[in-house]
């Protein structure tokens, strides 16, 4: 059942308010959709897992340790490929307007790790 014009308008207002209030949360929720090609990655990874399992069982049955290790490595690679995702689209921070700005450049010359942590702690304490 399609939304009425009033419901559609209210939904758009709620989305804009969410982006304005918490853009980081809104971008995290928007990124939760399945990406195109995820099914193909799962199929290829699953094939690698099954192939690795067959090679592992064959290596153990013939008492051939290197073949068993190769099967295990194939299973591990298939699993890693299946659960990994290819990053697509802009990478950065979502503004309140819904646009994406690139992440800030990191300047490594600001001091030691502990000095940077102390600066962050002081900034957070001052915000309260």
Automatic annotation (TrEMBL):
- Origin: domain of life: Bacteria
Q: Which InterPro entries match?
A: DUF3040
Residue numbers spanned by region Disordered: 94-128
List keywords of the entry alphabetically.
Answer: Membrane, Transmembrane, Transmembrane helix
**Basic and acidic residues compositional bias: what residue ranges?**
117-128
Q: One Pfam family of this protein, by short name?
A: DUF3040
Spell out where the chain crosses the membrane.
42-61, 67-84
Q: What is this protein called?
A: DUF3040 family protein
The source organism is Kineosporia succinea
Taxonomic lineage from the root: Bacteria, Bacillati, Actinomycetota, Actinomycetes, Kineosporiales
């Amino acid at each position: 059942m399609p939304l009425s014009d009033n419901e559609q308008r209210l939904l758009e207002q709620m989305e804009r308010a969410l982006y304005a209030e918490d853009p980081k949360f809104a971008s995290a929720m928007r990124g939760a959709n399945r990406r195109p090609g995820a099914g193909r990655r799962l199929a290829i990874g699953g094939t690698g897992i099954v192939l690795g399992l067959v090679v592992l069982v064959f290596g153990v049955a013939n008492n051939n340790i290197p073949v068993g290790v190769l099967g295990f490595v194939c299973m591990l690679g298939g699993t890693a490929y299946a659960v990994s995702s290819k990053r697509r689209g802009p990478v950065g921070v979502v503004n309140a307007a819904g646009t994406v700005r690139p992440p800030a450049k990191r300047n490594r010359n600001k001091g030691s790790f502990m000095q940077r942590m102390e600066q962050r702690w002081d900034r957070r304490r001052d915000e309260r």
